[in-house]
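S.,

Sequence below, as promised.
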Amino acid sequence: MAKKLGMTIDLKRCMGCHTCALGCKMQNNVPMGMLWNRILTDGGEDVDTARGEFPHLHKSWMPLACLHCENAPCVKVCPVGATYRDEDGRVLINYDRCIGCRYCMAACPYNVRVFNWQNPVREPGHSYGEAPARPKGVMEKCTLCVERTSKGQEPRCVEVCPAKARKFGDLNDPNSDVSQAIRERGGQQLLAEKGTKPQIYYLR
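The prediction came back faster than expected:
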């Protein structure tokens, strides 16, 4: 049986430290001003905004990156086949084929794709991580750290999470950590009603 790589994110364990977002940025050579992995807060659009009124405040976080949908709208709308699903179920982009039309950006209901509007700027002035640099005029997004996961390693966000909120594995393997967590904790897909079948599950 083919693999279907996916992830669980335990929202009870996430403490909004942004380590996953920074690890992703360094691993994937993501330019300044862009993020492939964002940490949203429940109370508002600003970082670490609490919900409620003092002294009854509550904080919770929602890590969000590409959900690697099994029925991915971004794959369907790409006019040149630059966005595709690989044999392990990852949704990837062929940067050489991308023409920058941004149809995929409009089609994604999760707003997780980013576009290189200008020549990428990296501090301190050179590339970092294992992913190749992308040019101006192409789309970018999470690849489930394809350079690492193709070698049997975990995505960087999973490896660096200090709260162990993330698990990674094969959703087609009923004995994998992710399959067991989804079964035992009732893993939820984001905007399940859209029918996109995300391969990232949230545990509440």
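The CA atoms of residues 95 and 134 lie 7 Å apart.

Coffee later?
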